[in-house]
Amino acid sequence: MLKLLIVDDAMFMRTMIKNIVKDSDFEVVAEAENGLEAVKKYEEVKPDIVTLDITMPEMDGLEALAQIMAKDPSAKVIMCSAMGQQGMVVDAIKKGAKDFIVKPFQADRVLEALEKAAK
Is-above-0.90 flag for pTM? Predict the structure, then answer.
């Protein structure tokens, strides 16, 4: 099983991802509501993959991505974005994100992104 950290300020979005991965090779080992929590949880649980929302309170996903990549350059992070955030997504990929998934989530696309990042 690969360890997954889900980061999103909306609980229903975290639940959606949990439901999508429940019968897969991914185990949700932690969740976070903002970027500050994400960086802390990343250090605590050392997940194999992170799904990271871009727009969150306290610290956004781009800043959290930068901090995670600074601590672990081999981190596998998949950004989650709403439509219309393409500029931020491009920025995130330049900063080291492996992929991105667009809300509302499509189950097959989420699993495809996770499996691709896991390789």
Answer: yes
Q: How far is CA 29 from the centre of its chain?
A: 13
Residues in the chain: 119
Helix (H), strand (E), coil (C) string for the chain? CEEEEEECCCHHHHHHHHHHHCCCCEEEEEEECCHHHHHHHHHHHCCCEEEEECCCCCCCHHHHHHHHHHHCCCCCEEEEECCCCHHHHHHHHHCCCCEEEECCCCHHHHHHHHHHHHC
Q: List, for residues 17-35, the tens digit of each pLDDT value.
A: 999 999 999 999 999 999 9
What pLDDT, on a 0 to 100 scale, did the predictor assign at position 21?
97
Residue with tokens 């509501």: 33
The pairs formed by 100-104 with CB atoms below 8 angstroms and a separation of 24 or more are: 101/51, 103/13
Q: Count of alpha carbons within 13 Å of 83, Cβ hemisphere only?
A: 2
Closest CA relative to residue 80, chosen from 27, 24, 12: 12
